[in-house]
Design a protein that fits this description.
By secondary structure, the protein is α/β, with parallel strands linked by helices. Helix content is 36%, strand content 21%. Strand 16 (359-362) and strand 17 (371-374) form a beta hairpin. The longest helix has 17 residues, at 479-495. It is globular and about 75 Å long. The protein starts with 7 loop residues before the first strand and ends with a helix.
């Protein structure tokens, strides 16, 4: 009788967990069990449906510098075979459903009740919006920062000032970042900037602006490998949002013999100090279940993972885990007859006054809204009625704070009132709204984060436990980074390796390593 394949339990049915599951079923005889706490797959990359309208939780551009990730996505959901010309393909919405769209990317900053390019450019409009005095201070402080770098970079403020100068940091980074995280920038690790802003600087933004004036090549090349992530101009996008991708992946996992169980919250991981031996979980009806395992892949929040260990983790590890902080998130879908007309004409359907952006960073200090998505521009298929505008207003908060405790009606009224206050809508045009709360959306780079290596050393010593994904590694990964960590975990399981270091190297590009080394000299 042939030996039985190893039993693999995957905790979490988001991009990391489902990528691991599909890779295992494709590349080995292993039939994994995926345990997802929510009632749908995709994690924060899921799509929420409400009365025929679809909400992308957080906005997910399908773009990666990794050929493996891009090919993986396009194998699951290809671009439509027609129209063949790249220029016709851009922003084309085909009749077929299981397809990727090629979308134009535009994100802007809304500040002083005006729109600014993101990243900031020195266009005539930007200079007029800022005014001569601000421009002068931006130029002087950027020159000073270029000559006198802050070394070492102790916190996120140092990171931003070194790349943009003090005035530009104060104008476009400080307030928004503190709105996101709820703490001053000088309390946040510079690691966050290195992972989210990466190589972007004024110099690179200006170079990109110059290149954008030159004749464009083939718009069908979505890889844009020579372009910083913050500067990409187009991206792939599933016709019905990111959740469509992950539901298809779930279906392939189950067709290959794997199992995906929803509404299952992991309560305990038993271990013998060397390996995880058993996983217990509670289903949606409150019943407890358990199973032995040969390998465990976890994308559950690290704080919850450590708390679920039996026997308990060492006291110092538990102390670090309990001190990890998460930023939570509320998004309010707002359905409208139309937007309020803006002073400067913009492309789009005039009857809806549709702005061209996929999302807009709201810098205004007199409202709590942090970011605004225009779902019509991600994919028209997200909107049931093409004669309406479907927005996603995004609020950063802390579970249990005043925002989190607002009921849905009050939260919806707040979102519509703030959109009206900053002049983007008329409240009389609001048709409906829908509220979605997302706990632990953003792992924070403060609290006990500076001691995270103590957790990593202890979990890495459990030979058959692999931490993957954003919350699984307490790292602000994008979707493609999370997928890559999952692939590397599968590589290790199939090859018999217990080396976790390749997983922890994801999202730490060589350029960042160089900056980090320079900063610590």
């Amino acid at each position: 009788m042939p030996p039985q394949p190893p039993r693999v339990i995957i905790i979490g049915g988001g991009p990391a967990g489902l990528t691991a599951a599909l890779e295992l079923t494709r590349r080995s005889p292993i039939k994994p069990l995926v345990l997802e706490a929510l009632d749908d797959v995709g994690g924060i990359s899921r799509t929420v449906e409400y009365k025929g309208n679809r909400m992308d939780i957080g906005g997910h551009r399908f773009f990666s510098k990794s050929d493996w990730v891009m090919n993986w996505w396009r194998e699951i959901m290809p671009l439509p075979p027609s129209p063949p010309a790249p220029k016709e393909l851009l922003n084309h919405v085909p009749a077929a459903d299981r397809v990727m769209l090629l979308r134009s990317r535009l994100s802007r900053i809304f500040f002083l009740r005006k729109f600014f390019d993101y990243p900031i450019s020195l266009s005539a409009r930007t200079m007029a919006n800022l005014g001569l005095w601000r421009l002068l201070k931006i130029g002087v402080t950027y020159g000073w920062a270029s000559l006198f770098q802050r070394k070492p970079e102790r916190h996120l403020e140092d990171f931003f000032v070194n790349r943009f100068g003090r005035e530009l940091y104060r104008t476009f980074f400080k307030d928004y970042t503190e709105k996101v995280w709820g703490v001053p920038c000088d309390r946040i690790s510079p690691d966050w900037g290195a992972q989210r802003v990466k190589g972007l600087s004024i110099t690179r933004a200006l170079l990109h602006a110059v290149r954008s004036l030159l004749p464009k090549g083939d718009t069908g090349d979505v890889r844009q490998k020579k372009t910083d992530t913050s500067l990409i101009e187009r991206f792939l996008y599933p016709k019905y949002g990111p959740g469509q991708m992950w539901r298809i992946v779930r279906d392939e996992v189950t067709a290959n013999g794997g199992e995906v169980r929803l509404g299952c919250r992991v309560k305990q991981l038993r271990h013998d100090g060397k390996r995880v031996t058993h996983v217990e979980w509670e289903d949606a009806d409150g019943h407890l279940h358990g199973a032995g395992c040969d390998f465990a892949i976890s994308s559950m929040p690290v704080r919850e993972l450590v708390d679920a260990m039996n026997p308990a983790a060492p006291a110092t590890v538990g102390e670090v885990a309990n001190g990890l902080i998460y930023r939570d998130f509320i998004t309010v879908g707002v359905l409208l007859r139309k937007l309020r007309p803006q002073p400067a004409p913009t492309p789009g359907e005039r009857r809806l006054n549709l702005l061209p952006d996929t999302w807009i960073y709201i810098q205004e200090p007199d409202v709590r809204i942090g970011r605004l998505q225009i779902f019509n521009n991600w994919s028209p298929a997200l909107v049931r009625d093409p004669d309406t505008v479907w927005l996603g207003t995004e609020y950063f908060c802390q579970e249990g704070d005043d925002l989190w405790q607002l009921d849905d009606e009050a939260m919806g009224r707040l979102a519509t009132a703030e959109l009206a206050k900053i002049g983007l809508i008329d409240e009389a045009d609001v048709l409906d709204f829908h509220v979605v709360r997302v706990p632990k959306a953003y792992p924070a780079y403060f609290g006990t984060y500076d001691r995270f290596d103590e957790i990593r050393q202890w979990t890495d010593a459990l030979a058959n436990l692999f931490l993957v994904g954003r919350n699984g590694m307490h790292r602000y990964n994008n979707q493609d980074h999370s997928m890559t960590t999952a692939k590397l975990a599968v590589d290790a399981i199939i090859s018999g390796s217990t080396d976790k270091s390749p997983l922890w190297s994801v999202n730490l590009e060589a350029e960042y390593h160089e900056e980090k080394q320079d900063a610590t000299k």
